[in-house]
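Justification of computing resources. Each target in the renewal requires a structure prediction run like the one illustrated here; the chain below, 359 residues long, is used simply to show the kind of job we budget for.
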Amino acid sequence: MQTLTPRVYWAQRHKEIYLRVELSDVQDLDVSIKEHILHFTAQGHGAKGSNEYKFSLEFLEPVKDKPVFKATQREVNITVQKVESQWWERLTWQLKKPVFLAPDFDRWLDESDAELELKVKEDQITKVSMESRVPQDHFHNLKRGYLFMYNLVQFLGFSWIFVNMTVRLFILGRDSFYDTFHSIADMMYFCQILAVAEIVNPAIGLVKTGVIPAVIQVVGRNVILFVIFGSLEEMQNKAVVFFVFYLWSMIEIFRYPFYMLCCIDTEWKTLTWLRYTIWMPLYPLGVLAEAVAVVQSLAIFNETRLFSINLPWPLRMSISFALILQIYLVFMFLGLFINFRHLYNQRRKRFRTKKRKTN
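Resulting structure tokens:
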């Protein structure tokens, strides 16, 4: 009986190496590790019939001496623990890959996917641990009911705004641009005042989202609505009001129903895709429209001196509110960057996690 080399497939995680030896009807199996070199010997049925098969692998980095292995009817599975949890650029010390070695694509992950898998496992362990320690939340259903009703009311409010503006646009054309504020402002006031709850909810732990992104969005919108549009009659007849309101409502008519379905553990894939995708063009456009509104208001604030700050003696000077708005413009685009990055990471995490679950 001649000695041959079997076909070996490998994959890795940060803590482990997986080897799959293509060998059936295995007998006299011996797997050992000495000085970070794995030695394999067995009799079995491989690609060239029943023979004795053996191979050795010198690993790239140190590994623990006790491999875990199990023979099935079709193959031998070997798990080797790494000494240090890290990602290897290759399996063996030698640069040239052995001819009998190939990637195990059934278990293959790149480094980023492996990190995501590790994080999911850690999150599951943490969740189980926390659930075992934290007492049951008796107000869980009450909180869900509140969040569902909040998102429902906001959805109805922004839907009314969007439909009303769309119908007026088709009927009146460009003329609808110039009286948008007088037709829509009351409902927009209601929705944006109610939106303060989106800062309170994460602050008290009702939802697991960041407080800072919510503050940036809610405060930014309310500055535009109450300070720029609400306090300046000259701004209320400008076309920019239409574009600001329309872009806000287009985003929200997809965001709020998505959150409503989350409250009842239901998902509509089309809505999920829209919620995590449509903001990518609309959110920057909305901020751009807000910036245009701020720029158009600067001359009015300079002329009327509204909200200007008069400093007491000995300074005896006045700070124009227009100057404050110019500084605010810088923070507006900084907020755009922060929120865009936050939302993009949410989208990336959402769809990568869904893809992993599907696979």
